[in-house]
Amino acid sequence: MNIDTTGRSTAPSVDDRRVAHATDPMTRTLVTAGAVAGPLFVVVALVQVFTREGFDLTRHPLSLLSLGDLGWVQITNFIVAGVLMLAFAVGTRRSLGAGPARRWAPILFAVYGIGLVLGGAFTADPALGFPLGTPDGYPTEWTFHGTVHAFAPPLAFLALVAVTFVVARRLTWEGHRGYAVWSRVIGITCLVLCMPFGPGASVRLFVGVALGFAWITAYAISLLRTRAGA
Fold it and tell me: Would the pTM of this model clear 0.85, i.e. be above it?
């Protein structure tokens, strides 16, 4: 700790250290991970949707892509996206100064990341005739892996919906009321799209996940721009 000629401490304050964290290369890398996670996940998933034999997005949820000989591609996709989101959670914590969302936004982003990792590590049970050669319809008994997969990603997605409202509160506090409204609208839209019943549930789920990731990318970019001007 340094002392100036008046006897006062010149050690950096908590806010000074937070600004330094927000502008350092490590923090920018962590936040960039969040910007990249969504586009990477969606592109890899779409390639599989159009190339995996027997897969029909109008009937099959993305989770079923983790099955079969090429299932490792979607397993890796889930895990990589989850790890990137965990990095983003740390980057968010380092970026946000005092005010709303400083604690809960990073926690909720981390929960979402953990859910994605679990979604990859614990695969769904075969269903609806996918992979090819498996019975049509839903399984009558769930395996342990299938049970974890059935609950972890949906609960994680609820965390994503929740963080849109947490971030909206901060945006309002920062004076960005229009962006705050859009954040809430996106959260509600994602929740409605991902309801697991009704027509086109699998397609709606994919659109909801893509929209949620698009919001994360937009928020990550806004953090990068804000921190660049800090």
Answer: yes
